[in-house]
Structure formats: C-alpha cells, structure tokens
C-alpha cells in the first residue's frame, strides 16, 4: 500500500514538475544587415535549442564603430528580423559585446551564434564574457551565402551566380578588389556557391495546406535581395486573405525584365529568403510569368495582388495579369515603401570604397 502511494505521489510530483517546467529562452544577436536566409537559418537552429527566441539587433552607431556603414538602417533591420517566422521578440540597440547583464535583463538562459568568429574593432571576441560563463552555444553556419558574397556580386556586375557556364565567371583582379578569391570564395568566411537541396527547403517550409474555407492570395515576382519593401508588400497582400502563395520567377525570366546581372540572388536563394517570412504560406518555384486560368483553378486562387511597380508584358506582348483582371480578382497594393533592389545596389556602390577597406581589415584580422 505504502509503495503504491509513494509511486502515486511521485507520479503526481513529476506531473506537476513537467507543468512547471521553465521555458528555455535563447538569445541571439547580430547586425542582420542585408538579412538573408543564412541569418534566418541560424535563427531557426537557435530556436530548436529552446522555446522562446529573443534577437538583439545592433544599432547603426555600433555597426559603424566596429564594422563600417551598414547597408540597411537600424529601423529597416529591426523590421526585417521581426518578420522572420522563428523570432519571438526583437531587442533594439543591442550591445555589440554580449554580456551576462543582457541575459538577466531579458531572462535568457544562453546565447547561440554561428561557428564563425565575431570581433570588435580592436579584435576582441564579442562573446568572450558569455563563453567564460559557459552560456554560449554554436550552430552551423549556412554554407554558400554571406552578406559579403552578395555585396561582391553587386559590385562585380556578373551573372556567374545564375549562369551555368563557369567560363563566364568574374575577372580575377575584380575579385581581389572586393576581397574574394577567383573561385568566388571569401578568404575569411569560406563562402562558396550554395548547393540547392530539398532538405533545406523542407526545413524552411511550414508545409501546411490551406483550410477548406481559406481565401487564397497569390503574388509573384523576383523578390531579389529580399528587403523591407518586399516585406511590407507581403504583409499587405496577406490581409487580402488567409493563405498567401508567392510565385518566384526563374533567373532567366527575371533577367529578361530586369536586365544587367539581375537577379543578384539565384532562384533557390530567393525561394529560401521568401520562405523565412512569417506572412508566406507557400512558394511556387519558377512560377510562370503570366497568371493563367489553369493556375487560378489549380491553386484555388481568390485574389491576385501586385505592387505599384510597372507591369511589363510577357514575351508575346500580352499582359501577365489579363485573366485575373478580367474575372475581377486583381488588386494593386501600395505598400507605402518604395525601396527596390536597384536602390540597394546603389547604396552598395556609394559605399564601395568603405566596403573594400572593411574587407581588407577583416581579412587581416582573420589571418592574425
């Protein structure tokens, strides 16, 4: 009798203990400049280590002091990180050196960072304090993507990232100018071209089907260098229904209507970037430029939305939105944000010299 009662009491205590189990709160911090799927993948991995993810984002002033001018303003970066689907909370103006006081303030158990080195302007490890306290964990860095690599593509104005012919790669001397080796690898990040896998797409995708009564919204575009303009457009488009499908055009299609070396990011990279967004339910990879009736019926689309940018005709001269317009499901959306991929490239070009100097300094620190 006593044995059974003891087991019962123990079971009750274990049950109560599990109910009271403390939620594990994780801290991740960074610049998150030109937020890409590599940043998002680090946040995804960090979230898997606990229950609640707090992300600290450094201010423009802090980044300027330790790294050089950011491409995006702090307000843009705060907004971008908040829209990543694994993030629970964003802390603005987070300190560049991670401290235990920060953990206490936000009730975080430990921090997570990629398996690369982050230092202050004087070469100090920004995580030395939390490492000493054994409250630091690492996640795997995403191979094949970095802010430096993307900036390099913009400055070099090449198409090697979306052309199959490797003989048309960047000039060796040009690569040296922006701190990259001839094979496209950064000497201090080790970045090489992303190898597409279905596993990575599955990790980023929610994989849920629309409910029977859900209103389905469709948008399409390049979504190159995924930025706050895209984000605000998707947020408004999502308000037209319950389930947002994003069609992403192939590299040749984007290059046809954008020209130059666009898209800066190849199709797979753009797909992963869009999948990180909390407003997106599904992605169509290599979506057709023209929205057909068959497509509308197959995906049960109730609304088709487009931003305020000009709608260019398809190769045959037809309006790609002719059918959605005819059946009354087409909507133009003014996101009140005029930022474009072209404008981002112009920001990079304006800071070209500062970017090159920053790369040289970072390379020197990595090699010492």
From TrEMBL:
Q: Name one GO biological process term.
A: phosphatidylethanolamine biosynthetic process
Q: Which part of the chain is the Cytidyltransferase-like domain?
A: 28-151, 219-311
Which CDD domains does the UniProt record give? CCT, ECT
Transmembrane ranges? none
What EC number(s) is this enzyme filed under?
A: 2.7.7.14
Give the enzyme class.
transferase
**Which domain of life does the UniProt lineage start with?**
Eukaryota
Query: What Gene Ontology cellular-component terms does the record carry?
Result: cytoplasm
The answer to whether keyword Lipid biosynthesis applies is yes
Associated pathway: Lipid metabolism; Phospholipid metabolism; phosphatidylethanolamine biosynthesis; phosphatidylethanolamine from ethanolamine: step 2/3
Keywords assigned: Lipid biosynthesis, Lipid metabolism, Nucleotidyltransferase, Phospholipid biosynthesis, Phospholipid metabolism, Transferase
Question: Compositional bias (Basic and acidic residues) at which positions?
Answer: 160-177
A GO molecular function term, named singly, is:
ethanolamine-phosphate cytidylyltransferase activity
Which stretches of sequence are listed as region Disordered? 160-192
Q: Which family does it belong to?
A: Belongs to the cytidylyltransferase family.
Q: Which NCBIfam families match?
A: cyt_tran_rel (TIGR00125)
Query: Record's PANTHER family?
Result: ETHANOLAMINE-PHOSPHATE CYTIDYLYLTRANSFERASE
Q: What is this protein called?
A: ethanolamine-phosphate cytidylyltransferase
Organism, per UniProt? Paralvinella palmiformis
